[in-house]
Specification:
Elements: H1 2-8, H2 13-33, H3 41-63
Length: 68
């Protein structure tokens, strides 16, 4: 239950920005992979790495809590 409380606790402003940037990167990569066009392998690998980085950023940004 501690994880649920941590994820629902208030997030500091800096980590809100980190979370939002991570979500934006993940959304861009998802849209790129959703295109009906075959992408070159180098672009697919770079996009995959950016997608992983965006997911990690969003997770860490959301799990940071504000200590009063």
């Amino acid at each position: 239950m501690e994880l649920f409380h941590r994820l629902s606790a208030p997030t500091p402003p800096f980590f809100q920005k980190v979370r939002n940037i991570g979500l934006l990167l993940t959304a861009i990569v998802s849209a790129l992979f959703g295109l009906p066009v075959e992408l070159p392998q180098c672009i697919s690998e770079i996009a995959g790495g950016i997608g992983i980085a965006g997911t990690v950023m969003a997770t860490l940004g959301q799990s940071a809590i504000k200590n009063e």
